[in-house]
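Appendix B. Chain record.
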Amino acid sequence: MAIGILGRKVGMTQIFDEAGKSLPVTAIEAGPCTVLAVRDLDRDGYRAVQLGFLDKPRRLATRPERGHVASIDSKARTRRNELGLESAPRAECEPKRFIREIRLNEGQEYTVGDEITVDIFAEISNVDVTGTSKGRGFAGVMKRYGFAGLRASHGVQRHHRAPGSIGGHGTDLGNSGRIKKGKRMAGQYGNAKATVRNLKVVRVDAESGVLLVLGAIPGANGGYVIVKNTNKCG
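Structure tokens predicted for this chain:
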């Protein structure tokens, strides 16, 4: 069964198990999330639920953001009512800062306005966490890909951190002389979607809405994440 929730990274700490062993864990503020929309197989072609996390002040929200979660008067709504068309249900809640969809399996049913809390992971042993990795700017090949570089000993050409050859000569043997796609070179490092899979769930604190997972997850403290049950256990 697909289970997922939205949250944000609080930070890393350590706890001790029953044997007194130190465990490095990441604390995630998971939920509560409000169901903002439900995707139907017949209407949308797939089954999913749209979740919203963390309230956004109405003074900072745009009119479309407010209209997505609550019923507000508009010309489009008036025209639909005149034509006898039913408007999509609204969760009637505050605008949300972080909105994502979670795919559902057959048999899972949610309605707009439902609230999902961290309790759903009470019986889950392992999870996948998706977030945005820390941005490290423009980086060279040694930092970005772990290239060894040239030795820093006597007599070595002063070209220590260079990537080396990036292509060959154009010949009649099929080598066009161009740089091939996917060549590992200097460029933007980090600030990309990343997923860490099969992290062990250490503790579920329903009272404070915190989930503790073993190890590190992508992103900086305060970054938004998606937590889902994994299918890679064992």
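Further analysis of this model is presented in Appendix C.
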